[in-house]
Amino acid sequence: MKHFLLSFFCFALATAGKAQDVEFQWASYVIYAESEYGYLQYSAKQALGKPNSVIGKDNFCAWTPKKSAGEKQQTLIVGFDKMIKLEQLVINENLCAGLITSVKVGCMPKPTQPFKKYPQNVASRKEVYKQDNPKRTTAKDFLYINPASPVDSVNFVEIEVWCDGWVQIDAVGIATSQNTKPITVRAFNFKNVVIENIKSINSKNQEISPVISQDGNTLYFTRAKHPNNRSEKQDVWAIDLNKENAQPYNVGEPINTVHHNSAFCSFGNDQKLLLNNIYHADSSMEKGLSYSIKQGEKWSKPKEVKIKDFYNKNNYSEYFLTQDEKVLLMTVERGDTYGGKDICVSFKEDKDKTTYSKPINLGKTINTAANETSPFLSANGKVLFFSTVGHLGFGSHDIFLAYRLDDTWTNWSEPINLGTWINTAEWDAYFTMTAKGDYIYFASYKNAIGDCDIFRVKLTEEMRKALLGN
Question: How far apart are CA 468 and CA 470, in angstroms?
Fold first, then answer.
């Protein structure tokens, strides 16, 4: 699999042709923030750790100051676990690049909690960067600062920004060398990939959420604002892929109503369809999950999937159910989420086989302060595919994968970007794969006929093995 991966956060020092180790750290704690736009999203702690936001695009995973009326200057101080002899600083100016007015470095004991007031009594501050007339630029790169001479004993960085706009700082790093290599995205690097726009189903309207049946013959999808919908909202559609010149069709009632309707996966030997929302007898709906059973050419009235202690603070959600119906993935915003929607997991109860357990957050390796969306689990239950803007990528939403490392469902490998063969500078999501692993489907705005479209790629055996880790 390594053959397919691009380098990720590589830092090396070359001297006389011989590579030497470079000590590099990302900020690990907040010392002081003059203000922050939110407690989770846009908070000062979003400037900690490695970069996880898309440069040049608004992101929840970056510190955004909340200035009061008339206040332009704002200060952020972040600390590092280990003191080093500083030769280079790296700052991700996520939005409004060019507005950093001053950068100081120094050393101080790690505080037990962030200071509420600016820490005045720090004797070892040294300014390594100053700009008197800050102006926003169109730069979409990291700011590298090389002091005129190395600075001894550095374990904090103080950044002052001029708030002429929606300023964001995503990551701050310090290094013992001025020759750190550019920061890149860890991604699969498949070549000569043919991406097919499925023109038989795509229109000038929005098509999202592809759901492929287990036999690979039927593709369900969600379509919005189509003249053949029950209303101007979303309806579930389908197409028989094994029939020549087949045309997509609206699956009709009772799945489709005057409300928003969407499908997430096909299960139960392709006789069941997992649906968004809970359908009530009075034709109203509420947040939750339902399923419908195929009865000949028709579908049964959707029935609620019961989940213990279920609630979702977000207006949106997506779900995925394994074929044995034992594991249910969902994207919801709850009390333990890291910002927006997080991916959580529930398990079918042994005693009550019609109810799923209380959702468990998959943890901070997967989830971020941004919204995670459209989870999909490989047939072997080991590889999670999902979309987010919360990990470093190429666009407004990218598709990632992560490998499950044990049976806790909270221990995952670092997410890997699927790469530019599938991800674009725009919104990419709703990855799904056939049971055979021969085709993948996804939704994207890039090269769409109208709004969002559904695309597919025929995988080579080499690509399939690389993605699934076997």
Answer: 6
Same domain, yes or no: 139 and 272: no
> Any residues with CB less than 8 A from the CB of 301 and at least 6 apart, and which?
254, 279, 292
Query: Are residues 133 and 88 part of one domain?
Result: yes
Rg (CA), the chain: 25
Torsion sign, CA atoms 203, 207, 213, 216: positive
Give the mean model confidence (pLDDT) for residues 37-65: 93
pTM attached to this predicted model: 0.92
What CATH number does residue 87 fall under?
Answer: 2.60.120.260
Same domain, 159 and 199: no
The encoded tokens of residue 329 equal: 């993935």
Judge contact between 414 and 404, C-beta under 8 A. Answer: no
Q: Burial letters for 353-375: b for 16+ Cβ neighbours within 10 Å, e otherwise? A: eeebbebebbeeebbbbbbbbbb
Is it the case that residue 353 has pLDDT exceeding 80?
Answer: no
Shared-domain flag, residues 291 and 384: yes
| Total structural domains within the chain | 2
Q: Domain for residue 317, yes or no?
A: yes
Which CATH number does the domain housing residue 418 bear?
A: 2.115.10.20
Distance, in Å, from the CA atom of 323 to the CA atom of 434, rounded to the nearest integer, reads 12
Of the CA atoms within 13 Å of residue 374, those in its CB half-sphere come to: 27
* Cα-based torsion angle of the residue sequence 50, 431, 448, 466 in order, rounded to the nearest 10 degrees: 70
User: In the predicted model, is pLDDT for residue 70 greater than 90?
Assistant: no
Sheet holding 100-106, edge to edge: 29-33, 73-86, 151-162, 100-106, 126-130
Measured CA to CA, the distance from residue 274 to residue 134 in angstroms comes to: 53
121 and 83, same structural domain? yes
Whole domain around residue 273: which residue ranges?
195-468
Owner of token pair 């998959």: 362
| 27 and 73 both lie in a single domain | yes
